[in-house]
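quick one before i forget lol
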Amino acid sequence: MKILPGTAFYRYLSITFFIVFPFISNAQDNSLTIKGRVIDADTKQPVLFMQVALFKPGTDTPVTFSDTKDSGEFSLSAPNGNYELNFYLIGYDKKTITDIVLNSNKDLGKIEVKSENQDLQEVVVQTSKIPLRADLEGITINPEANMSNLGGTLLDILRNTPSISVGDDGTIALRGSTGTNILINGRNSSLTQNLDQLPASAVDQIRIINNPNARFDADAEGGVIDIILKKGEDLGTNGSAELTYGTRGRMNTGARFNHRTIKYNVFGGYNYRDWRDVGKRTSDRILFEEDERLLQETDSESQNIGHTFNYGGDYYFGKNIISYEGVFTTNVDSQVNTLYSQLSRNSTGAPILDFVRRNNETEDDDGVDNAIIYERTFDNPDQSFRFLASSSYRNQYKVQNIDVFTNSTEATEENLTGQERGFTDEKRNIYVFQADYIHPLSEKKKIETGLKSILREFDNDFIFQRFQEGNQDFVTDPNISNRFIYKDKVYAGYFIYAASSDKIDYSFGLRGEYTNLNTELINTNEINKQNYLNLFPSAQVLYKLNEENSLKFTYSRRIDRPRPWRLNPFPDITDSLSIRRGNPNLQPEKIHSLEFGHMLNRAKSSFTTNAFFRHVDGQEDMITIIQDGISYIQPENLNTAVSYGLEFIGLGEIKPWWNISGGLTMFRIIVDGSNVENGSINKGFAWNTKLTSDFKLPLGINFQIVANYDSPEIEAQGRDLAQYFIDANVMRNFFKDRGSLALSVRDIFDTRRFAGENRTASFSQDFYAKRETRIFLLSAKFNF
C-alpha cells in the first residue's frame, strides 16, 4: 500500500477504512449536495466502498466524507463554497478533483479511477463488508460478515473459516495440520492459549497465511493465523454497543469507542461474557490380551464468566507514528465432570470394577498484553521502518476437588470412598522485540530486512493430594506432584529481495533462527537443553495473465517446535484409567511446504484455487500407550507425514439478492508411525467445506445460512469421524443502519459432535462427545 506524502497522507488517515455514518455529513444546515458515480477506468464497473472526502483548499481536515454504495454512487452535503474532492481506496491510485465551486446542487456524473499495480507483499482488504478476500499469501476474513459469529468467541469465528477445523478441545487444524502459529495483532501472545475467552465482537480481521515468507516466524507446520483486534479508524468520535442473550442464560455484551483527529487516535473496548454449557462423552476401550472392556461415560456442566478490555492509541507527528496497544482479560471457569466407569471381562461380560469420579474444578485465568510500536515513513512512500516491543503475561490458577466412589455406580455421599485434589499454578511470560526496514532500490525493486527476539518462560507448579483417613488430612503425593519450568529464546533475522513488473511479481527470502530451549522438572531435577540454528528459505511468485487472472507459487521451509504443554509430563488426573500427559523428549518437526494457485477476480465474484504439498520429518501426533490396564495418551514424534491436496475459495453474487461465499479443502495424508509402539503407516483422504449463503429479503431483512462439514480424518492409530452442522441467522437494520437486531440458531439440526476410533494390535477404542450445540441467540447492536 502506498504511503501518501505530506498533507495527502494526513488526509488519507482521516478517512481510511470503515463506513462513516450519514448523520455526520448531513449535520449542517442550508447545505448543498454534490454527487457522482465512481467506476473502474479499465473495467467500467462500479467501484464500491471507495472513500470520498470533501476538503476546503489548503486544509487537512475534511468538511464531510462518505463511501460509495454498491452502485458506485456517492452523495455529500456541504455549505456553499469552494472545495476539492478526493477519492481513496487501497488498490486504486488516489484521485483529486480541484476547483469545485458549490453554489448549487451538483452532479459530477461518472468519475473514473485507475487501479494501481499491487505489490505482491500486500494483503488487500478493501472493505469490512466483504466476508473474505484471497491474495498471494492466503485469505483475510471479516468476522462481522458472518452472523453466526454474533455473541460468540474467536473460536466460533475460526470454526466458520475456510480451511480450518476446530477439535473437541479447541485444537485448531489448518489444512489438516494442528501446528499453527497464532498471533494477536501480528505479535506472539500468551492470550492465544485459550481462544474461547476472546469475544468475536473484539475481532476486526483474521489473516490466514498458509505459506508465510521470511518476514514471519518459521514456527508452525500449518502456517500463521493473525488475529487483528478492533482499534477504531473513523475520524471523530465513534462507538458501538451490543448485547447477546441466549438459551441457558448465555450472555455476551460489550461496548467500544474511538476518538480520532489528524494528530491522534484513542480507542477502547469492553466485553462481558457469561457462557454456560452441558455435555456428555462416552468411551469404549477393549484390551485384547487382558480380555478387559472399559465403558466410560462423562456428564459435564460448565460456566465461564469473563471480562475483556482492549485499549490503546496512536500519535502522529511529522513522518512518525507512535502507538500503544493493550489487552486485559480475566476469566473464571467452573465445571463439574462426573465420570462413570465399568470394567468387565470382554469375553464373558463378567464385572471387574465399577467406580465414579466427580471432579469439581475452578480455574481463574488472568492475562495482559502490552505493546509499543514506532513507525517511520520517508519521502519515498515505499520506504519504511517499524519497531515493536511487547510483553504478554498470563496466570492460570486451577483447583480440582475429586470425589471417588469405588465399587459403585452412583455418586452419593454414602458411597464415597476417597477424595483427591489438585492445584495448578501456571504463569506464562512472552517478550517480543522486533525491527523491520523496507528500502526501495528502484521503482520496481526493494529489499526488506529485520531482526526479532522472542523470549518465553512458562512455570507450571502442580500439587496433587489424597485424603488419608489415618490423620484426617490431605497428603501430597510426590510421585504425581511436580513443577515444570520451560524457557526458550529464539533470535531471528531475515532478508527479502522483491521485484515487480507489469506481468510478474516475485520475492525471495532467507530467515535464520537460533533456538535456545531449556526445560526442568524440579522434583526430579531432570533438565532438557536444546540449542540449534536453522535457515529457512522462502519464495513467492505472482504471474498476471490478464486483468482478471493470475497464477501464484509459494515455497517455504518451516519448523514446528513442541508446545510447552506437550513437553510437560504432568498427568491429567481427571480420569484415573485414561491419563493425558506430555513428553519432555519431543523434538521439533521439520517441514517443506509448496503451493501453486490460480486467482480469478471479477467485479462481482472472485475465485481462488490452490494445490498444496507438505512433507514433515518428525511428525508430532497423539499416541495411546497401554500400561497395567491404564491408557496413557501422549504426543510422540513419528517418522514422517506427507499431505497434499486442493483448496477452492470463492465468493460471488448469484443474484442481486443472493450472495455465496466459502471454501472446499481436499487433501490426502500419509502418516508413517512405524517407529512407535504398535505403530504403522496410516493413510487416508479427508475434506472439509464451509459455505455461507446470504439472502436479501423484503422489508430490509437479511437471511443467512452457514453450513460446515469435516470428513473423517486419519491419525497415527485411527481416525476422527465426520462432524457437520448448519447455522441459520436473520437480521434487520434500524435507525438508518446504525442499529440492528439479529436472531441466530446455532446447529439447527443438533448434529455437531466429536467422535473417533483407535485401532492397534493390542487395543481398540471408540469415543463420542456431544455438547449442547443447538443454541438460540438474540443480538442487538447500535453504532453511534
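fyi Confidence is low (pLDDT under 50) at residues 1-29, 117-128.
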